[in-house]
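User: I'm writing a tutorial on reading structure tokens. Could you give me a worked example: one chain, its sequence, then its tokens, then a sentence or two explaining what the tokens reveal?
Assistant: Sure. Here is the example chain.
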Amino acid sequence: MAASHTVHPFAIPQISKLGVLTLHGYGIRVRMQAGHLETEHGIGPERYKLRLPRVNHRLKRLVCIGDDGFVTLAALRWLSDVGASFVMLDRLGKVRVVTGPASSSEARLRRAQALALANGAALPIARELIAAKLDGQENLVREKLKNESSANIIATLRKSLLSAETIDAIRGIESRAASEYWRAWYDVPVLFPRSDVKRVPDHWLRFGTRHSPLTGGPRLAVNPANALLNYTNAVAESECRLAAVACGLDDALGFVHSDTANRDSLALDLIETIRPAIEAWLLNWLSTEPLRRSDFLESSDGNCRLSSTICSELSRTAPTWAKLVAPWAEFVAHSLYGGRASRARCLPGIKTPLTQRHRREAKGVSAERVSLPKLAHICRGCGSHIPRQSAECWKCAQSTRASTMRDVAQLGRLASQKPEAEQKRKRTASRQALARFNWDPSQLPSWLTRDFFLQQIHQLLATVSPSQVRSTLNVSHYYATKVRKGYVPHPRHWLSLAKLAGIRQ
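And here are its predicted structure tokens:
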């Protein structure tokens, strides 16, 4: 297969500013070539190739979306040597593979983690993790969704965590809070460009329920909003796995989530703490940016799937979720070491590999503020990419302006056809006819002739505003504008217009 002619070599700027490189398509290749990491991906004739050296590569995450291709052992070794992680996801929001730099495994920590459910050490940790989640949900519902009743219910459930004496009780509180939380999300609107609104199903235009009719749970979402949330959660879950392993924890031994085959329960426990941040970011996106129809595909069973383009954009958010979950992973490790640790204090002598908190405190440096990622800004009319300071592209803006003018004209025509408008026109016509009948031509000065009006007065009226002409003659704005443009009014108005123009004699 002669594919070399269709391969487009890209420079290093293909990697995002946050150090994420996303590969998608068919025939994905990750291998070593002359000491460089060589990647190749794409679909059909659009194949992209990139070579990264060991220095100045800026790579932190290599995200692979798809399952057709290969990764060599030498490439995995290269990623481990440079401190980068390899993540494999699918478009349905499921984590397939996560590998990261190897960290030292401490037997004491893992033994304490394995015994935590039996000796009661897991209870305060689970209570702290779920309390953080409910606190974030309460703030989001109260401040973003403006739903005071749901926020008060979640706040009450959060306070009841203090009296929860078992893990099952904590799970029950979290479940009831989740039901109230997602009920507040049901009517959140989802925006699409005007050119796409007629081509999307009706149930795509709002967030809807979190439970998919295909599975009874969040998996296999049937609308774009839930599909976006599923995939973003998968990206964050992979970062939680890496954070747990970096702290020396076993990502499969959780506290809140029960032990299930093929599931990393501790990673799911950690992601509970940052779910409100993920959902707040998604809510801000849905309320400010329209989604494009071309980024989503509805399968034969109704499942909504994401395109490779939007999956690549969502994968670039991984470093943000890694920074948010880092202190929580260290909190769990310190709690298992010391029996009960505080989030506001780190145990001395215990490593903080993710946040570098000990080093920052020694140097007197404050913690770095985590900013939420920004996605592409698109036009509300056609969905094309535009500068962030604009709401629409130039073509759609012109079309909107013309449409607005047509609507205003149509409203004016409709208003003029009402019976009230017809009666008003009749009363005005009668008043003007009576004024013309009662006017005495002898009141007009001899010097104020038609020629004098056209040669002298009309030129001066060009400097007078239509509102002044209208108030002086007690006529409509339309008639006053006609007079300023050259229309000769009835002679009974000439003297008033001469005074308005500044002519007294």
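What the tokens reveal: The two ends are 97 Å apart (CA to CA). Confidence is low (pLDDT under 50) at residues 1-13.
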